[in-house]
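=== RUN LOG ===
request id: a7f3
mode: sequence -> structure
chains: 1
length: 168
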Amino acid sequence: MVKNTKGFTLAECLLVMITGGIVLLAIMEGYTLITGYVSGRTEEMDRRQRTYHDLNLLSETLSVCDSITVEDDKVSVYFRGRKTLLSFYDNMLILQRDRLTDTLLTDYGVQLEVVGFMENRPTMPQIKLTISSGGNLAAEHVFSPGLSGPAGIKINMEKAEEPYLYDR
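=== RESULT ===
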């Protein structure tokens, strides 16, 4: 005895296949959008981390030094007999210490200039760091060697980035 079973018509099969395909495409497109968003956020966090690392390195170099000499586009920083050279090339800041050569703040325009001399050490210049992004001022900080630390410049950068932070 054969049971009476109901089969699907061709139209019903095609409808299920087309609907399944559309759902699969929608899921894959959503996955692609999420992957792109996460990738973009990761790149942005990486860029900010590099910027803060560069600022800390620069701040540490200028803040704990024994003496500074400035010649044209080069700033020589001395600390316990070690020389660190900061030089500019095409709006890039290049740090050279021992065998280490590092390009700092590549996403920004950077300027270092002497703005005066310290009262208690008249031969020690105060260095003003100006960072610009897209032609706009992003941060400014004056380093008094031996006195200023990295906290001041971080605060300035955070204030400059505040209008662009969408989620915390």
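=== NOTES ===
The mean pLDDT is 79.
The longest helix spans residues 10-63.
=== END ===
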